[in-house]
């Protein structure tokens, strides 16, 4: 009987010690991860590879602990990086130019290209069969912040198709990036440029 009790006690102690060793190993493993604070300009399907890597633990495998936050708009991302609240920001490269031209000594640096195309969609209030950009003439479009990458890209696309963004259409740049979808749903503008997944909330859209 004593041998049985002794055996059970030894087995229990072995389980406790193994558990402590396992917890300590995980703690040491986690402590070796380098924390990177990242701010993204929009929560969009164009960043799907990043979300997949986060959910599958690929960053941890490379020794990185990613803290992801949403800072709607390049101006908000830029402010977060300059203040030291985040280490890296995902936004249009125009932000680095504005900061540099503003005389900031500790200016931002663009070091990677994430996409090769603008990630916004042109969303209409009403369904338009056989839509062309000519349908925009005389209309009001909520285009985003003046000088922002989505708004500048939209103007470029219009010019490429023979439409003068200054005289042929009315591009509203008064609405903040985070408020564009809400303003459009509230009745402002005939069209709006939106990132996915906000664009999906509207049933009729044409890709820019």
Descriptive overview:
- The chain is α/β, with parallel strands linked by helices and 208 residues long.
- It folds into two domains: 34-101; 120-207, D-Maltodextrin-Binding Protein, domain 2.
- Helix content is 38%, strand content 17%.
- It contains seven helices and eight strands; from the N terminus they run αβααβαβαββαβαββ.
- The chain has a five-stranded mixed sheet with strand order 6-5-7-4-8. A three-stranded parallel sheet has the order 2-1-3.
- The radius of gyration is 25 Å and the shape is globular.
- The termini are far apart.
Q: Strand-residue fraction?
A: 15-25%
Task: Classify the helix fraction into a percent range.
Answer: 25-40%
Order of helices and strands: HEHHEHEHEEHEHEE
The count of DSSP E runs of length 2 or more, i.e. the number of strands, is 8
**Count of helical regions:** 7
Low-confidence stretches: 4-20, 203-208
Output the CATH topology of the largest domain: D-Maltodextrin-Binding Protein, domain 2
- On the 0 to 100 scale, the average pLDDT is 81
Q: What is the structural class?
A: alpha/beta
CATH superfamily of the largest domain: Periplasmic binding protein-like II
Distance between the termini: 81 Å
Question: What's the CATH architecture of the largest domain?
Answer: 3-Layer(aba) Sandwich
Largest sheet: 5 strands, mixed
Radius of gyration: 25 Å
Shape: globular
Q: Order of strands in the sheet with the most strands? A: 6-5-7-4-8
Q: Could you name the CATH class of the largest domain? A: Alpha Beta
Number of structural units classed as domains: 2
């Amino acid at each position: 009987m004593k041998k049985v009790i002794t055996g059970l006690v030894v087995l229990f102690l072995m389980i406790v010690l193994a558990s402590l060793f396992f917890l300590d190993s995980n703690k040491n493993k986690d402590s070796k991860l380098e924390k990177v604070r990242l701010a993204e300009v929009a929560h969009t399907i164009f960043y799907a590879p990043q979300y997949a890597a986060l959910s599958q633990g690929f960053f941890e495998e490379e020794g990185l602990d990613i803290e992801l936050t949403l800072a709607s708009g390049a101006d908000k991302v830029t402010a977060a990086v300059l203040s030291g609240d985040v280490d890296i920001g995902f936004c249009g490269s125009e932000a680095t130019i504005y900061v540099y031209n503003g005389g900031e000594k500790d200016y931002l640096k663009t070091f990677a290209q994430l996409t090769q195309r603008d990630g916004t969609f042109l969303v209409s209030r009403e369904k338009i069969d056989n839509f062309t950009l000519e349908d925009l003439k005389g209309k009001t479009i909520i285009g985003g912040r003046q000088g922002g990458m989505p708004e500048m890209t939209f103007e470029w696309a219009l010019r490429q198709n023979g439409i003068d963004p200054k005289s042929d259409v009315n591009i509203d740049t008064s609405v903040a990036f985070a408020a564009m979808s809400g303003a459009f749903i509230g009745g402002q503008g005939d069209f709006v440029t939106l990132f996915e997944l906000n664009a999906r909330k509207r049933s009729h859209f044409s890709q820019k």
